[in-house]
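Handout, section B. The chain below has 441 residues.
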Amino acid sequence: MNNKMRKNIKRKTTFLLALSMICSFPNAVSAEAVLSNIGETHEDSETVSPEKDKDDVSPENNTDNQNEDDNQNSLSEDDNELSTLNDNPKDDSELPTSDDNNENVHFNNVGKIEVAIQNFLSFGDDVKCTATLIYPDGSTNDTKDVFISKEISEERKVSFDNLADGTYVIKVEAKGFATYEQAVVVEKQMMYTLRLTTGFCNGYDYENDGSNHPGALLIGDVNNDGVINDEDKNALIDAIDGEQVAEDYVTDLNNDGNTDLIDLMFFSKSYKEENKNIKAKIESSISPLAVSITSAEGTHVDGDFSKLLSNDDTAESVKLTPADEGAISEENPVSVDIDMTNGGTATQVEDITVETGSDSKSAVDEGTITIQYVDEDGEIKEIPAVFKRGANALSESEVSAELDENGNIHVHLGSQVAVKKVKLTITKMMEGSNNLVDISK
């Protein structure tokens, strides 16, 4: 038996040992609860008469096949061919205009892409991921670092803001990981979220196209060529066996300072998984950049609405009290105005939810919410809806509103509506409250 045959046998034996370690000590992290908000993309509808959703201010369905190519393991030529896109995504001077209520309104760049990464592996040190946004013209001016904790942890997020309509590509790279790329079509004042995890998560189906799951960052790119294959496996096994490999090779995959069978076990989790669907199901909602909130006359605000709109998980709630410090009542209400035309035109919405919390000290009892929208004929109309704690959804025309036991105010519009403004007015608090409204989202 020559040396080459011995080496190949040793490599196979070592790899089989790593596979047996995975079977004996699986990384049994279930992501069902942690990532339960992974949902279907929402479909944009052209209907503009008063329907429903469940994000803070978001449309209900955004084409399931909107990013059909994203469900493939690599970008197709069509994904890379951006011939139909804006030539200069950062210059809004050539963007289309829209006739909204007989006014020539200019679209602003309010699109947003958010990348959220969560670690489901155990590393010896923190891992730096680099997220790059590739614009429709091929430029890559925006690059942001995401540092994920060495232990299983909460999501870490970065975002790319003020995007014009067009097809962009998110590229995520990290030492020892295969390069992750996914196309995202930005349109209609929307925000798109890609949730990614280190490796595959229990509780999700990665076998079938169209299934809902986070994107998978696969570990095992030893030779830094962006993919995981036999070359990486052989180099890793050689390094474990004490042989010399290229200095820039990443053989310490778990980042603990050693190259050993644990690294091969990490590698085995991603090896020959190219037939799985590793692309994230893209979530969509109204871009917070398309929305602004101000207090109405007679209402004092303590807090920052812009932080609530930014999806910042650490943002504190905003408190509303009457400016005259009197009791909240029909004669002395607190109100906020939500402008949804920052993108230059009305925003398509089906459902609106305002979270006010269930704390007895700031529990809302009654109020109204007024929707200003553009109908099918281009005319601006208003529809009020009343809500009351403990009552079923109260309807006014096609619009209904309800206040649930957790203090969430839900407005159902009946169908997609081109909403311009929303006015929320609180007219009564629960008995024993401290006379302030606490808006958390």
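Note. The helical segments are 3-24, 77-80, 230-240, 261-268, 305-309. Compare this with the example in section A.
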